[in-house]
């Protein structure tokens, strides 16, 4: 098993939540753009770049997207894919530049605004992220990723009820949306509602889907913060090394101690937000 960093086990979204509010890039956006009629060459290039990124070679994908941007300078699609790949590589300034270039070609593109919002969340700028998600929703009021991202920003700004309304709206639009369900559980955990969060995490962890490692570690976090250290360790061991499990249990205990203090929830939010993306 891999040894991972302590903050990986916390996962309260910036990875958690951000991963959940990611938007389709490149070829994946073609279906949603009725006016877009990319050439076969462009579609093929986007397909290859997206497959490369999904296969884990993000740097190679960035190179491919840059080549496609150069070959198709009037299309926003490769710029969106490039922005996503740069975001995943934590090249935030370059990602913002790619999304802004896409907006210059397509001023009402909500996916570009969602990309900017995700970068701002990763930079711990929830107010700026909220503004970007609102711009996306002004053009596409039912954009699930923008609604989900807006919820994350609101959670990080200390407005859990408003955030949960966003996650529930996503679930109305897309019943079963795992990202919104995970974020709802995380919102409850962040607000101290551990006993409500744990069943939601258990339900998600029982499903067969990508991203189960993240869900299981969120469940371990919730169990640990509720004082069920043996159960937390059992779940954590499914993915983490013994050393990482031990480290995470100690961190859960620290968060649990903070949770008993008057300013516990705010302190936990800061600790979770420090995990980055």
Automatic annotation (TrEMBL):
Keywords: Plasmid, Repeat, Signal, TPR repeat. InterPro entries: CellSynth/LPSAsmb/PSIAsmb, TPR-like_helical_dom_sf, TPR_rpt. SMART domains: TPR. TPR repeats lie at residues 76-109. Pfam families: TPR_16. The keyword Signal applies. Residues 1-20 form the signal peptide. It comes from the Bacteria. The keyword Hydrolase does not apply. This is Tetratricopeptide repeat protein.
